[in-house]
Write a structure and sequence with these properties.
heterodimer, A: 283 residues, mainly alpha, Fumarate Reductase Cytochrome B subunit, three-stranded antiparallel β-sheet, 13 helices, 3 strands, B: 663 residues, two-stranded antiparallel ribbon, 4 strands, elongated
Chain lengths: 283, 663
């Protein structure tokens, strides 16, 4: 934790309450889906059979999986609605919204930063002056978009096979949907519980975790060090300086840490179980 | 020899003289042809009329009156009023001799007026040949003739044993009586065929045709080839050589249909019970006393209540002392031939004759004197008691169960928990299969034996005794040896249902196990089953998820190409609808045994899978490298920071130290 040494130092609101709430939905539903989904993917291994039993059997895990799927669809559409409201509030066109500094749409600069980062990794340049969204953060964001679309649609086919085949979908597509659903989920779970965790929480300058997604606030010092370009933008824009304020209350920080560590631990355990099953037990 | 020649000479002379005298009969009828001719005897008026016509039709027509009434001198008439009795023996020597020693003559000598004489049966002057249809002694009329005295309700019937009172009506219902009366078969046995006409003796008399030792001879008069028909009972020549070893005809074929007399006059049970009724009666076998006590009351309540001791203990003889000395083991095959034949084939029998003391003999299951019908609830062979009975030896911890084969452990305990055992022991369903229904009661053999009822080749027929409907389905299925000709082993009932642990098919245990059962042979198909949803949730313990037989059928399994198959084009939608009510033509295209490892069979799945793998490997590789590089770089940066910090501290410290020196 990068606790501010000087309490007088200002904190910047990186995430609004709505987005933080959505991320909590993402975390809870994603972990639920991952656990209950892996149970069926690795149903042949005694380990996941035991977990299934502990949770009350396949009927319970199946139910949890579907409920979490519904939550996923809900946050997905809530976020789309959030984008629309933001656009209306700002009174700008979609193009300018997507092209702005605050946009998560990848652009040429991200490619430049990616190359520059690589150079920095090998000691042939200095650390890039990252802005509000780094390229890996954008990747994370679009990974969710892509994941929800792919896993969600294939999941719906598996959930309502009779309905979709009635519409003319060949029966083999259920088999294909199974493969896509399962392997895409493996990708999502594998990515989030390893790279996302590292990129965001475990990299040495953030270790053991970054609570900004729960508290919403990050110290100006940290922004200055981590995202110099954003720091510049804030310093130049009085509008953005309105988002500067006090550090997050202690209880929120504490709650954020408790929830965050729980989620991280669960994720780590899951990824260990998956790797273990894939290497030693899965046929 | 001389005597015989003399008797013949006398016979000839007398016949010639009788024939010569026949012309004189008219003289007799001059008086006796008058219907009013009477005389008074013992105060009663007796007619002396003789019907000349009927006499003329009688077999004695050729013999004149004086042929029988030899004390009349035709030249000196009228004859004296009191004539001596006609002696039939003059001509009919042998029959009369026989009659003289017969039951009838004995009775007459005792003064019983009911006892018949010659005329009682043959009449006086109207005597007809026994071949004459009108004769009272014609074969068709014999039962009526004897019945005059021996039918129910007569004075005679009141004097005989109660069992013998109904002989005539019993006879008329017997196969002999039916043959005679209903079919008019005159070769059928009538009273005289067995009892003889004149030599009628009680069966206790060794000379009697119906004596135990003679009865076979009597019956074989007609039933010539009976030895061939009864080979099992008679065993070739035993009947002649050792008639005491085997039952005689009437032991099985009651003479007058229901009569039950078993010659207990010769060896009545109480003779046996005099000794064997004593509880302390023992004999020494291998140095150990063995009780010879027989509980007669118990015996009389047994299934053998109508059998006298001697019927089973055949080897008893008056010449021995005691009569039963060394009479040996009872041979149950005397009556229960089939059962004993089966037993001799069975493993029990084989072991028993090899001298294995643990192998059971008849009485070990049926008991000796307390033998009960298997329908009797107290009988050890009563359906509900059978598991206990067999369990006496075949239970865990008992010698047999563990000695033979370890896989046989717990058969009784497993049976009790099986659907058959629960049906029998908990629900009291007596039609439920017990040990003997599958293994047979007397001919149980190890399943390896091709004759065994539990041999894989026979097990389906064995189960079909009760589960006929299932058997009929199975017989036409792909698993039936009638349908599939193969060298590989085809499954039979107990491959899926097990033998002693047989379960209810709708319970989870069965549904969970069946996949492994089918998978024993259909290894690859069952592997791919687990790659799809049904198999996956099954592995997680779902009972509802479709099992092999939910789609393929259980006993009526047929290849999908067969129109009758549950998976045929016409039936498959309906089959899926059992669980998926909205199943449709496209829906059934789902590949329930799909695998993405087979490129030729499932190219779509194969390429989808590898595309996904590529995506995964690509993403993970890129970020893997990215992360490792980032991690090392960050660590280096941190180290650098630390060193810089340390330097900064050292510098500030030296400055401080310099300041101190200044001070």
């Amino acid at each position: 934790m990068n606790e501010p040494l000087n309490t007088n130092k200002k904190y910047y609101e990186r995430f609004d309450a709505y987005s933080r709430f959505l991320h909590i939905l993402v975390i809870t539903s994603f972990i639920s889906l991952a656990l209950t989904g892996m149970i069926i993917k690795f149903s042949g291994t005694g380990l996941f059979q035991t977990i299934s039993k502990m949770m009350g059997g396949y009927a319970v895990t199946g139910f949890i999986h579907r409920v979490a799927a519904v939550v996923t669809f809900i946050y997905f559409f809530l976020h789309i609605g959030y984008l629309f409201r933001k656009k209306r509030k700002k009174g700008v066109s979609f193009t300018s919204l997507l092209k702005g500094e605050n946009s998560l749409v990848p652009n040429k600069n991200d490619l430049k930063e990616l190359i520059a980062t690589m150079k920095w990794f090998v000691g042939k340049g200095s650390r890039p002056l990252y802005g509000r969204w780094t390229y890996w953060e954008k990747f994370d964001y679009w990974a969710v978009f892509w994941g929800v679309a792919v896993i969600g649609s294939s999941g719906l086919i598996l959930w309502f096979p009779e309905f979709f085949t009635n519409l003319g979908l060949p029966g083999t597509f259920i088999n294909i949907a199974t493969i896509i659903h399962s392997d895409e989920a493996l990708l999502a779970v594998g990515f989030i519980f390893s790279y996302h965790f590292f990129n965001t929480h475990f990299r040495p300058d953030k270790f053991p975790m970054d609570t900004v997604i729960f508290t919403g606030k990050v110290s100006l010092d940290e922004i200055k060090e981590d995202r110099p370009r954003e720091y510049e933008t804030i310093m130049q824009d009085p509008e953005l300086q309105k988002k500067l304020g006090d550090p997050p209350p202690v209880f929120l920080s504490r709650a954020a840490r408790i929830f965050g560590f729980t989620a991280l631990t669960t994720g780590i355990i899951l990824i260990i179980l998956i790797i273990y099953s894939m290497i030693f037990l899965y046929q | 020899m001389k005597k015989f020649v003399l008797a013949q000479f006398i016979f000839f002379v007398s016949v010639i003289s009788i024939v010569a005298q026949s012309k004189d009969d008219k003289v007799c009828l001059d008086c006796h042809g008058d219907k009013t001719l009477t005389t008074t005897r013992n105060g009663k008026q007796v007619s002396l009329f003789i019907n000349g016509k009927s006499f003329a039709g009688s077999i004695h027509e050729e013999i004149s009156c004086t042929g029988c009434h030899s004390d009349i001198d035709p030249n000196n008439l009228p004859h004296s009023e009191k004539l001596s009795k006609v002696n039939c023996a003059t001509c009919h020597e042998t029959p009369v001799q026989h009659y003289e020693r017969s039951l009838h003559a004995e009775a007459l000598k005792k003064g019983l007026t009911l006892a018949p004489t010659c005329v009682s049966c043959h009449s006086k002057h109207e005597i007809l040949s026994s071949k004459n249809l009108n004769s009272r002694t014609y074969v068709m009329n014999i039962p009526a003739l004897c019945g005059q005295c021996h039918k129910e309700g007569t004075q005679v019937s009141g004097m005989v044993n109660p069992e013998e009172r109904k002989v005539l009506s019993d006879y008329s219902e017997s196969i002999h009586g039916e043959g005679l009366f209903k079919r008019g078969l005159i070769v059928t046995a009538v009273c005289t065929s067995c009892h003889t006409s004149h030599d009628i003796l009680p069966h206790t008399n060794p000379a009697s045709t119906i004596n135990r030792n003679n009865i076979a001879k009597t019956c074989t008069q007609c039933h010539r080839q009976i030895e061939q028909v009864h080979t099992k009972v008679i065993r070739g020549s035993l009947w002649e050589k050792q008639p005491n070893k085997i039952p005689v005809c009437i032991d099985c074929h009651a003479p007058h249909k229901v009569r039950k007399v078993f010659y207990d006059d010769s060896f009545p049970d109480d003779k046996c019970m005099k000794c064997h009724g004593q509880k302390e009666l023992t004999k020494i076998v291998n140095g150990k006393p063995v009780s010879l006590y027989v509980n007669y009351d118990q015996f009389k309540n047994s299934a053998h209540t109508n059998n006298p001791c001697i019927k089973c203990h055949t080897n008893i003889s008056n010449s021995k002392n005691p009569v039963c000395l060394n009479s040996g083991k009872v041979d149950c095959s005397i009556c229960h031939t089939t059962q004993v034949d089966d037993y001799n084939i069975s493993l029990h029998g084989q072991k028993h004759y090899q001298g294995d003391k643990t192998a059971p003999y008849c009485i070990d299951c049926h008991t000796s004197h307390n033998v009960q019908s298997k329908k009797n609830i107290t009988s050890p062979t009563f359906a509900r008691n059978v598991p206990e009975l067999c369990g006496k030896c075949h239970r865990e911890g008992k010698n047999i169960a563990t000695a033979l084969d370890e896989s046989k452990l717990g058969i009784v305990a497993n049976y009790r928990e099986s659907i058959h055992g629960k049906g029998l022991l908990q629900s009291g369903l007596l039609v439920t299969a017990t040990c003997v229904n599958c293994h047979s009661s007397h001919r149980e053999l190890p399943k390896k034996d091709p004759r065994s009822t539990v041999n894989p080749n026979n097990i389906a027929t064995t189960c079909a005794q009760c589960h006929l409907g299932v058997y009929e389905e199975f017989k036409n299925s792909i698993h039936s040896p009638d349908v599939t000709k193969t060298n590989q082993k085809l499954p039979v009932c107990n491959d899926c249902h097990r033998s002693h642990e047989i379960n209810r098919v709708d319970l989870s245990d069965f549904r969970t196990q069946i996949i492994n059962q089918c998978g024993k042979c259909h290894e690859k198909v069952s592997e791919t089953y687990f790659d799809t949803f049904h198999g996956k949730v099954s592995k997680l313990g779902s009972v509802r998820a479709a099992r092999c037989y939910d789609c393929h059928g259980a006993h009526n399994i047929l290849p999908a190409s067969n129109p009758k198959s549950k998976l045929s084009h016409n039936n498959i939608i309906e089959t899926c609808q059992k669980c998926h009510p909205n199943s449709n033509r496209k829906f059934v295209g789902y590949l329930t045994h799909a695998t993405h490892h087979n490129r030729d069979k499932y190219p779509y799945l194969f390429y989808t899978f590898w595309a996904m793998v590529l995506l995964l490997v690509g993403t993970f590789s890129f970020f893997g490298i990215h992360t490792i590089m980032w991690f090392t770089k960050s660590l280096m940066e941190k180290k650098k920071h630390k060193i810089e910090k340390k330097k900064a501290v050292e510098i500030s410290q030296t400055i401080e130290n310099d300041d101190e020196r200044v001070d």
